[in-house]
Design a protein that fits this description.
With 333 residues, this protein is mostly helical. It contains twelve helices and no strands. The chain starts with 5 loop residues before the first helix and ends with a helix.
């Protein structure tokens, strides 16, 4: 693997942290959409709440997702500085395009697509670690489905338990409960998403011989990535908040609680299993689940379907951009 100078290495780490910041900015909606749409918290307070739990997530979860990104998507022996640069370009370009259009695409899958595109551009299809990649691709389907089902079941349980309560009492209680469910979702978001950038930086350091013979994630990388994501969340992503919180379906505090709790449970399971799922897919599935529990017509299926189209093209689109970036750098060299 080609060695690079320290300034180039520092520059690539800075670009990776920029992606992590944009990830927080782009995915802020995932953490706060429901609590904002139910008017439990104002947007400016909601992002502070979400940013705090995004940051402290490293105290709760291990680094299983970071290890998956670093070693189970593309063969670590193929990865070099040029592949990492191409992966980050592919992910950042796609994030900026979808953020500008207000489309809640997956930052996670943009990064994975970028990594796949850069790796294949260098070494062909043999660069991919198909066991880890297939696990990630399967999660594209399963994470929103699990979020949908959990939210649906939670709505049924909570509705049954609240049958003797007045609507006012239920609304007041779940305004309080939503603080806890939003905290759990933000914790799950920080735990799963920040680890993806940790994996990218760690495999870059590994490729340059800074980690010795065994792959690991230094603690300073953990702190840097959690801080970058929290700062991005703090800046907010209001266009996507509007799509996620207001355009898919109208939510009550009880439904917001069920959506966040179902989404958080999905993220917790995936993170402990080391599966890099999309927080965007997960919370969208949960929101659709609570809307469908009321009645199918409560969900604006045209909005939901446009989001699904963005999911489908995220990995190939970011992979193509990454491959082009790799070839441009190779041509310039």
């Amino acid at each position: 693997m080609d060695a690079i100078g320290l300034p180039v290495l520092v520059g690539l780490i800075a670009v990776a942290l920029l992606f992590d910041f944009l990830n927080g900015l782009h995915d802020a909606a995932n953490s706060i959409a429901t609590i904002v749409s139910t008017r439990v918290l104002r947007p400016q307070y909601a992002v502070v709440w979400a940013a705090f739990f995004n940051f402290v997530a490293f105290m709760v979860f291990g680094l299983h997702v970071a290890n998956t990104i670093g070693t189970e998507i593309i063969d670590p022996n193929v990865i070099d500085a040029q592949v990492i640069f191409a992966a980050l370009v592919g992910a950042i370009v796609w994030n900026v395009v979808t953020w500008g259009l207000g489309i809640p695409s997956s930052s996670s899958h943009a990064l994975i697509g970028g990594l796949v595109g850069g790796g294949i551009a260098k070494a062909g299809l043999s660069a991919a670690v198909w066991s880890g990649l297939s696990k990630t691709l399967l999660a594209i389907v399963l994470s929103p489905l699990v979020g949908f089902l959990l939210a649906l079941v939670l709505v049924a349980i909570v509705s049954w338990l609240s049958v003797r309560s007045t609507p006012f009492a239920v609304d007041r209680a779940f305004r309080i409960f939503q603080f806890f469910s939003a905290s759990l979702y933000s914790l799950g978001h920080g735990g799963n998403d920040a680890q993806k950038t940790m994996g990218i930086i760690a495999v870059l350091l590994f490729s340059q011989g800074y980690l010795g013979s065994e792959f690991s994630v230094p603690f300073w990388v953990v702190l840097s990535c959690q801080a970058a994501m929290a700062l991005g969340t703090l800046m907010g992503g209001w266009r996507i908040v509007r799509t996620m919180g207001l355009r898919i379906t109208k939510l009550t505090p009880m439904q917001g609680f069920c959506a966040e709790t179902g989404g958080a449970a999905t993220l917790f399971m995936a993170t402990f299993l080391g599966v890099p799922v999309s927080t965007t897919h997960t919370i969208t599935g949960s929101i659709v689940g609570v809307g469908a529990a009321r009645r199918l017509s409560a969900v604006r299926w045209n909005v939901a379907s446009s989001i699904v189209y963005a999911w489908v093209i995220t990995i190939p689109a970011s992979a193509i951009v990454a491959a082009l970036a790799y070839w441009v750098v190779a041509f310039v060299k």
